[in-house]
Amino acid sequence: MTKQEIADILEIKEYRLQTYINDGYLDDTIWHTFDDKRKKRRNFKYKMFKNGDYIGVGTFEELAELTHKTVQSIRYYHTEKYKLRKHTDRFRLVKVE
User: Fold this and answer.
1) N or C: which end of the chain has fewer CB atoms below 10 A?
2) What is the pTM of this model?
3) DSSP secondary structure, 16-40, as one string
4) pLDDT tens-digit profile of 38-77?
5) Closest-CA residue to 61 (of 75, 79, 80)
6) Which domain of life is it from (predicted)?
7) How far apart are CA 54 and CA 91, in angstroms?
8) How do the domains of the chain map onto residue ranges?
9) Angle formed by the axes of helices 3-10 and 14-22, to 10°?
């Protein structure tokens, strides 16, 4: 549901709805929903290895918590750019079906 649709239901303008949100009267989590395709795409599980040693299994977010690294770092380990460079500690992500 978009902000415009909510504003139409409340019979107010969208800018007025945004003012209520900014003032703290409304919680904006209602329209921050992911569509199913995006959610499924980002919730793949991966096995993570460091220099051939098994670290754990989980989504990017779960692996970030487990290794105390950022989610962006974990995603970078899965890119071709990372695979082409030489590293002292080599991380490898294997997709779990």
Assistant:
1) C
2) 0.55
3) HHHHHHHTTSS-GGGS----HHHHH
4) 555 567 899 999 999 999 999 988 999 999 999 999 999 9
5) 75
6) Bacteria
7) 10
8) 3-33, 40-96
9) 100
